[in-house]
Amino acid sequence: MTEDITPASDDLEIYISYERLNARDLGQYLTGLSFIANKIADDYFIRFNNPEYEGKELPTLEIESVDTGNSIKMKLKEGWKPSTKVEDGDFVIYVPKMLGVPLLVAASLVTAAIAYQEWEKNAIEINIDKIELQLKQHELNKVLGSDVDKHEDFRTSVANYIDNKIPEIKPVLLDTVKSIVGNPDIKQFKVNNIEIKVTLSK
């Protein structure tokens, strides 16, 4: 039995159905995703001077919830530490709008999974339109749009962004995808309700 996830617009949701789940493997996935999120946030703040985020701490990937059984479902959100300031005698808390980092992490992981499985001659049909539409509602979408050829599709835009702007995440993405696809104990792995691995029952 599989479980459908309907992700909230700002979240990265991971669903893993497994025979057994090694803590080391799960730790590797979470460490990889955190590294990717940090590099995406770094790249945004290096390339775009947005006064709304000035002086703010970089966003991080935070675990919002974890549900377990014979599967595990994790919801990861964009985390900020709000900044405070006193203006005209009033104590003001600033919370900038979400960039969309979890969605770009999801898009990167799905894009890498497609490329890896095509290279392995195991082409899979994956529709990432939902992530594309969600990401377009966020500030971070401009990191893809700044240097994009108007004729590129979303998947190509994500791949080019990784190759040209944050190439250091490529080996981490590849290692994460290889570990997921090659793990015989994982029956199903979904990213925002998009299957990147499914093992058919015999």
Strand content: 15-25%
Biggest sheet details: 5 strands, antiparallel
- Rg, rounded, reads 18 Å
Q: How far is it from the N-terminal to the C-terminal residue, by CA? A: 14 Å
- List the uncertain runs: 1-8
Question: How would you sum up this structure in a few lines?
Answer:
The chain is α+β, with helices and mostly antiparallel strands and 202 residues long. The chain has six helices and seven strands; from the N terminus they run βαββββαααααββ. The strands form two sheets. Strands 2-3-1-6-7 form a five-stranded antiparallel sheet. It has a two-stranded antiparallel ribbon with strand order 4-5.
Spell out the key features of this protein.
202 residues; alpha+beta; five-stranded antiparallel beta sheet; two-stranded antiparallel sheet; 6 helices; disordered N terminus
